[in-house]
Each structure stands twice: as structure tokens, then as C-alpha cells.
Write a structure and sequence with these properties.
The structure is a single chain. The chain is of the alpha+beta class and 161 residues long. The chain folds into 2 domains: 53 residues, no CATH class; 79 residues, no CATH class. Helix content is 27%, strand content 22%. The protein has 4 helices and 7 strands. The strands form 3 sheets. It has a 3-stranded antiparallel beta sheet, with no helix packed on it. The chain has a two-stranded antiparallel ribbon with strand order 1-4. A two-stranded antiparallel ribbon has the order 6-7. Strand 2 and strand 3 form a beta hairpin. The longest helix is centred in the C-terminal third of the chain and has 15 residues.
């Protein structure tokens, strides 16, 4: 049986907290103040007990995913030097899906240029980068953008293995 969890009232919860509910192997999260229902495909005795966590955001950083790059260092702004390294890679796909992704259409120069930009996801990367510059408004936007072009690393930084 599908179920919904609704936060009916709250007392003493931080204003910007997140409610996280886990039933079995399914976890749903929402801002406590959103009033959004958390839906679960089923709730049986095997999903008991239901775990409810109240989470508080510590820091936020944006990662602009760059085509062809799989590892990034993400630096979080704030008083303390916080960072992490993450790996972003394609999920395993079936042979039919892989063949469909690898197909490249031919065409005129304009179409070839468009295909090149789309094939390397340059427009998506630049658009996402500009969106984060607008949101973050860094003091030096060029250094900020360069860091994203370098996948979060400084020149000469070593990567975790």
C-alpha cells in the first residue's frame, strides 16, 4: 500500500531544517516548512521501524559538472576550510542504450558545430557555470570560474586515488 507522510505541526525545529524519512530502503526528504507530502511506494511490517531525521544544513557549494571529467574537489565557503572530493561517472547502461548514445549525425558546418558543442556538452557546462556565478556572486568571478574549469582543483593539486 502506497503511503504519504505529512508534517502536521512542529515545535522547536530550526527554521531551515530538512525532514528526512526512511521506510525500508526508501528515503524521502523535504524542507520542513514546505508542507510537502513525502510519498512512499509501500509501507509494510518489513519497512518498520520508520526512521525520521531532522537535518540542518551546514554548508552549500555548487559543482558544475564538466564533460569528460569524473573527479572534482568541492570547496565549501565559510569560516572553516571545508572541502570534499567526489566522483561523477556514467551509470552502467545496456548495449542498446550505449549504441544510441554513440550515434553521431553528419551534416552542414553549422550542424557539425552544433553537434560538436552538444557532443562535448559545452553549452550546458557554460550555462551551469554562469548560473552558479550569478547565485554565488564571488568576489573574483574569474578565479571562481577557473576553479570549476579545473574541476575544483588548483593547478598542481594532487587528486585522491
Amino acid at each position: 500500500m502506497a503511503v504519504e507522510f505529512n508534517l502536521l505541526s512542529q515545535a522547536g525545529l530550526p527554521e531551515d531544517c530538512i525532514v528526512s524519512v526512511r521506510a525500508g530502503s526508501v528515503r524521502r526528504q523535504a524542507q520542513a516548512s514546505s508542507g510537502r507530502a513525502l510519498r512512499f511506494p509501500k509501507l509494510t511490517m518489513e519497512e518498520n521501524p520508520v526512521k525520521i531525521d531532522i537535518l540542518k544544513q551546514v554548508a552549500t557549494a555548487y559543482l558544475v559538472v564538466k564533460p569528460g571529467e569524473t573527479q572534482y574537489r568541492v570547496a565549501f565557503p565559510g569560516g572553516e576550510a571545508m572541502s570534499c572530493e567526489v566522483q561523477v561517472k556514467k551509470a552502467e547502461t545496456s548495449e542498446a542504450e550505449a549504441a544510441k548514445e554513440d550515434a553521431k549525425p553528419a551534416g552542414t558546418n553549422a550542424k557539425e558545430a552544433k553537434d560538436y558543442l552538444e557532443g562535448h556538452q559545452i553549452l550546458q557546462f557554460i550555462q551551469a557555470l554562469l548560473q552558479t556565478v550569478i547565485k554565488e556572486k564571488p568576489e573574483n568571478p574569474y578565479v571562481y570560474m577557473a576553479r570549476h574549469f579545473m574541476s575544483g582543483y588548483e593547478p598542481g593539486d594532487s587528486r585522491s586515488k
